[in-house]
Amino acid sequence: MKHFGTDGIRALNECFTQSYLQKIALGIASIGKDMTVAMGRDTRVSGRYIESQLLETLTKYGVNVITLGIVPSPTLAYLTSFLRCDYGIMLSASHNPPEYNGIKLFTSQGEKISQELEKKIESVIDNPVPFVAKQGKVTSYSGSDHYIGYLLEKINPDLSGVKVMLDTANGATSIIAPRLFSMAGASVIHINGETDGININKDCGATATDCLMKAMEESDADIGFSFDGDGDRVKCVYKRKLYDGDHIMYVHCKVLKEKNKLKDNVMVSTVMSNLGTERACQRSGIRLVRAKVGDKNVYYEMKKHGYNVGGEESGHVIFSDYIKTGDGMVTALLTACLNKEISIDLLDDIVEFPSVSDQIRCNKENIQRFNGNKEIKEYLENIDNNYRIVVRPSGTEPMVRILVESENLLDAQNKANEIKEFIKERIL
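User: That's the sequence. What structure does it adopt?
Assistant: C-alpha cells below.
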C-alpha cells in the first residue's frame, strides 16, 4: 500500500492512530542501525500526540531522538545536517488545514528522502516485524538561533529602512520569522502569529493570500510575505501585486543570470508552470526545465545537473546555494534584499496565459480507477494542442487536479469543464 504522497505521509488527524504511528515508527527504525534522528513539528494540536507515539516506538527500537519542538520544516532540515543526525522527521501537514497532519522525512544532508527509501519504509508499515534493539534516548535541543545565525552570515542581509509584513499562518514560522527579519534590520509587522495550532492556515498564509493582500492595503509596509504552516512555502505581495513561486524565481533568475551566478542559465519549475512563465524565460535567455510536481522532484532535478534555482508556483522555492529544500524564509529574505536593490516590479515581465484550475474530490478507490482507466488516458492524450493541460491525482489531498491553459479564458473554462465531466463519469 502507498502511504507516502507528494510530500511525506499526510492524512486527517484521526487516521494517525496509535497502531498506525507505531508501524510508521517501526518503518523508520528499520532503515538503519544505531541511528540518531532530529524531530520537529509545526503548531498543530495533534502534533504532540503524534510526537509522543513516534518517540515511544523509535526509542524502543534503539533510535536516539533529538526533539526540536516547534520549528519550520526547512529549519528542521538544516538542523538535521548541523547536528549530524542520520535523518530528520518533521510533523506537519504543510499548507493543509488544522484537521490534517503529516510526517516528512529528510536525509542527513537535509534533503527529502528518495522514493526508494519511502518504498522500503512502506513495506515495513504494511508488514511490520518487530526487531530487537537497545533502548534509545531522547534529548531536546533549541536550534533556531543556529539557523538564524547561518542565514545572516550566509546572506548578509541589510534591510534597514525596509518595513516588512509577515503573515506566518499561525504556524511554525510564527516565532522565528519575525526574529530573522528584525535581526536583518527590517521593521516588522506581524500578522497571524498564534502558536496554539487551532487556526493554522485558516483563512491566512500562502494558500489564502487575500489576507495579506488586504492587510498590505491598510498598511504602510513596503513588502509582504505569506508563509504556509510549516514554512517551506512563501508568496510575496509588492505594490498590490501577488508574486507566486514562479514569479519570485523568475526575478531572481534574471538578476543571477546578469551576475553570471545562475547555473547553466536554467530555472527549474514543474509541469504546473504557466506558459507565460516559459515565454518570459525564453525572452530573458533563461531555459525553463520542468519537473514533476513536488519540491522533492524539483530538487532532485536540480541536484542531478547542478542547477541552483528551482521551485513550484505554489511557493516552494529552492535556492540550493543556501539550503537543499524549499525554504520560505530564505526566499523571503533574499527577495526583500533584491527588492531593496532593484524594485521587483521592474524585473517581472511575465504575462500569464489564461488558466483554469479545478478538482474532483474523491477517495483512494476513485483515484485508483483514474490511474488505471485507459479511456481517460487516451482522451487526455488526444486533446488538441490549442491547450496545455495537466490532469493528475493530488499527492497531498484526496482529489484529481485539473489545470487547463489557453490563449482564451472562455475556451480554457469550457475545456476544464469538459475534462472534469468526462473523468467524473468514469471514476465516481
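The first strand starts at residue 4 and ends at 5.
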